[in-house]
Amino acid sequence: MRQSHAMRVLFVVAMIACSSNKPPAKSRDYCEGQVAMQPAPPLGTQMGSSKRPVNTFSIVARDPATGELGVAVQSHWFSVGSLVTWAEPGVGAVATQAFVEPAYGPRGLTLMRDGVPAPEALQQLTAVDLQQEVRQIGMIDAEGRVASHTGAKCIAFASSHVGNQYAVQANIMANDKVVPAIARAYESTQGDLTDKLLAALDAGQAAGGDLRGCQSAAILVVSGKRSDTPWKEKKIDLRVEDSADPLRELRRLVVLARAYDQMNQGDAALEKKDTKAAAEHYANAARLVPGHAEIAYWAQISLAPQGQYDKAMLSRVLKGDPRWIELTKRLVPAGIIDQATADRVINEAR
Fold this sequence. Notes:
Elements: H1 5-17, E1 57-62, E2 69-75, H2 81-84, E3 85-88, E4 92-98, H3 104-113, H4 118-127, E5 135-141, E6 146-150, E7 159-163, E8 166-170, H5 178-188, H6 193-206, E9 216-222, E10 234-240, H7 246-271, H8 275-288, H9 293-303, H10 311-320, H11 322-331, H12 339-349
Antiparallel strand pairs: 1-2, 1-8, 2-9, 3-4, 4-5, 5-6, 7-8, 9-10
């Protein structure tokens, strides 16, 4: 039998949940005294929003070639992505920051979903915000119409830049060179929207970044296609909640996400009985993250029933950790592989 993507995901989730008994690492106390998050109240009244600036620099953008929409951010603030980054396939993207009001995200997307252009949507929301002078927001819609707002009381250096289908926002910068550096990097970088957003963040940090340093980062990219199943149109959704080097960690996660995407494409090819294409996708995943046992195991075990797997690679995984042998045995009653295949791969590993 062939392994299905859905079945494999269930096994992966179960293994992750039970894979470690190590105590959690001691966290750094950056945010002592922070008010607990509550559901977003009306604009201008969120508890704590006028007390502490949450974000440092971000970019919202649309790829003219693919229609993809994205937002990326780095900050000296814990879990910045949970507040700042908002996007909906075929609708738009929003970054809401400085003395942050998260409601700009869902409300901005609602307006753009109803056909309101991003500049007008932003104007409507800031017009009724009693604290718009301490807000910083970037919005872009599915047509590439873009706008940015930096309130007069945002902490220096604070500024915005609106370019061709992108906008940059930054506050509490070490200097006034950060925003121009982000814009130049975005415009000059080759690659897909994710590559361009990552390059923009790296450039902002290289130019001086946040006066306070680094802590967290996030990137969210969705397709330009509206859908009744928007979760299927999400391309990248990654967060680094707390790290001494969040942009390096974010890039590592992007590579890993792309490897797992190759795995998913391999599964889809197998479902169409295209073993050659599946093998190519699995090989691509392995090249992206060499030595990754999870990816190596599932790639080869998926091809094992067809007898076209890399025996040496699978053997190294099984010999390296006996738990993979035990898992292989358990795949039989689950209907993922048959008994003959399990026996063959286990015997080859001995």
